[in-house]
Amino acid sequence: MSIAVESPGLSETQRQIVELARDFARTKIEPFAAEWDRTRHFPRDVIAELGELGFLGMCTPEAWDGMGVDGVTYLLALEEIAAADAAISVSMSIQNAIPTTMLVKHGTPEQRERWLKPMARGELLAGFALSEAEAGSDAASLRSQATKDGKHWVLNGTKAWATNAGTADLMMIMVRTDEPDRRRGAKGISTFIVPTDTPGYRAGKPEDKMGLRASNTATVALEDLKLGPEQLLGDEGMGFVYAMEGLDAGRLGIAIQAVAIARRALELSLAYCAERRQFDRPLQDFQAVQFKLADMATRVEAARALAHLAAARKDRGEPATASASMAKLFASETAMWVTTQAVQLFGGYGYMRDFPVEKLFRDAKVTEIYEGTSEVQRIVIARSLSGR
Ligand code: CAA
């Protein structure tokens, strides 16, 4: 039995896409991932190549220059990229999910022509800035402000932990558009489309992170950043809802990223346990080791199945918010658990930077934190159970 997704059961299109993604991942990403991690190098050229293959606009309809594939097919490709390096997959995941969903659902024809089409063709890299230093899980309490200046909007504030803030071409930025003395909570937030070369947009220095070190994460200072009315996305005051819709899609991407990290840790563990001998036997001959590997494999399969189930529900147009949260919750906790077991199986070697399970262990942690912590996913699931 293979740990990766194999051909039987896949459609011809899916098989071709998986092969393309796996080949790219194994030749253009995997051999360099450890070095990029060590040096915190963001390989913009590799992201551009992913774009040329169509992987930055996979679910965008063909009419808007995307590949137009379903959500499950997209997850199959994303898993292959993430298994080679989660730091690369996060750019692919965010672009396909959050800014794309926002523009497909709420963009004007002009906005789609101007932004969505080049994003789908991989010519533009897009990010998303919701969180602030004092507004993480409680995203609706964000304080960055847009005020009207004639027809224009002027944005001020600081966003935190935004992926690709320093490397994207454009960011979807959530700020308040309600009056400071008449706050409307989640309903006072709007989304703006902000090219990162707009005067007044300033990305901070890349954060020095525990994992995903080859991906760019930074604060964004908005300093009297002036935007035209055509840069407001959808309706004023609906930005929080758009962010949540985007995150419904985004959380599926993070779920499969976590599956991929766990799968890679399992693949490496299987190879190591076949080769490593202690007490005159390979580790794989010990039943305690066999049970550990069996549990790891079971959780990887279950996490992938949950992610695919949520994507299929979304593809069918069924409510999938809680399903996406379940998939992300289970897959991210699986990634943390499986990588912990992998480090344990590798023993002293597992604790060393020279062995790849150490990186997987560090990369796994953020899947329990970003795009909504495990606690936030439990809130979303619990609310859905009580019909809220
Ligand atoms: N789809 C559509 N609408 C939604 C929605 C969804 N999934 N979730 C909520 N809404 C709507 C609600 O219906 C509500 O509208 P109405 O009043 O009209 O009903 C409105 O949004 C407000 O919703 P809530 O009352 O549920 O809002 P809340 O303040 O209680 O927050 C929360 C709920 C789930 C905790 C939310 O704040 C949340 O998800 N927090 C985590 C934020 C997060 O994931 N941040 C990650 C940032 S991105 C990142 O990690 C960095 C990166 O670059 C990858």
Radius of gyration: 21 Å
Q: Which ligands accompany this protein? A: acetoacetyl-coenzyme A
* Order of secondary-structure elements: HHHHHHEEEEEEEEHEEHHHH
Per DSSP, what share of the residues sits in E-state strands of 2 or more residues?
Answer: 5-15%
Distance between the termini: 41 Å
Strand count, sense and closure of the main sheet?
4 strands, mixed
Q: Please, what is the average pLDDT?
A: 97
Question: Which bin fits the share of residues in helices?
Answer: 40-55%
List low-confidence stretches: none
Q: Which class of secondary structure composition applies to the elements?
A: alpha+beta
Number of helices: 11
Q: In what order do the strands lie side by side in the largest sheet?
A: 1-4-5-8
Number of strands: 10
The best one-word shape is: globular
Descriptive account of the structure:
By secondary structure, the chain is α+β, with helices and mostly antiparallel strands. Helix content is 51%, strand content 14%. The chain contains eleven helices and ten strands. The chain has helices at 12-29, 33-39, 44-52, 71-84, 86-106, 109-120, 239-275, 287-315, 321-346, 356-366, 374-385; strands at 126-129, 145-149, 152-163, 170-176, 189-195, 201-203, 217-227, 232-233, 277-278, 281-282. Strands 1-4-5-8 form a four-stranded mixed β-sheet. The chain has a four-stranded antiparallel β-sheet with strand order 2-3-7-6, with helices on one face. It has a two-stranded antiparallel ribbon with strand order 9-10. β9 (277-278) and β10 form a beta hairpin. α1 (12-29) packs parallel to α4, α4 packs antiparallel against α5 and α9 (321-346) runs antiparallel to α11 (374-385). The model has no long low-confidence stretch (mean pLDDT 97).
